[in-house]
């Protein structure tokens, strides 16, 4: 299960990169999106440095 989450998050990151690079308001390095999974629940965590 853990490898599948890692592969999925990598595919999402490669898919989102061109979209995020086009957006001029997004400054590289000021955000972090992390998938989370604790065995029962899954989710995404977003950290934005203002």
Folded structure, characterized:
There is one protein chain. The chain is an alpha+beta fold and about 50 residues long. Helices cover about 40% and strands about 30% of the residues. The protein has one helix at about 1-20, and strands at about 30-35, 40-50. A two-stranded antiparallel sheet has the order 1-2. Strand 1 and strand 2 form a beta hairpin. The chain is flat.
Sheet bearing the most strands, described? 2 strands, antiparallel
Uncertain regions spanning at least 5 consecutive residues:
none
Spatial strand sequence of the major β-sheet: 1-2
**SS-derived structural category:** alpha+beta
The oligomeric state of the chains shown is: single chain
Number of helices: 1
Approximate strand percentage: 25-35%
* Strands, total number: 2
Average pLDDT metric: 78
Distance between the termini: 34 Å
The best one-word shape is: flat
Q: Please bin the fraction of helical residues.
A: 40-55%
Which H/E pattern describes the elements?
Answer: HEE
Which value, in Å, is the CA radius of gyration? Answer: 13 Å
């Amino acid at each position: 299960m853990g490898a599948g989450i890692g592969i999925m998050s990598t595919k999402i990151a490669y898919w989102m990169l061109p979209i995020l690079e086009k957006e001029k308001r997004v400054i590289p390095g000021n955000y972090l999106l992390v998938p989370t999974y604790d065995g029962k629940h899954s989710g995404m965590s977003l950290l934005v440095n203002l």
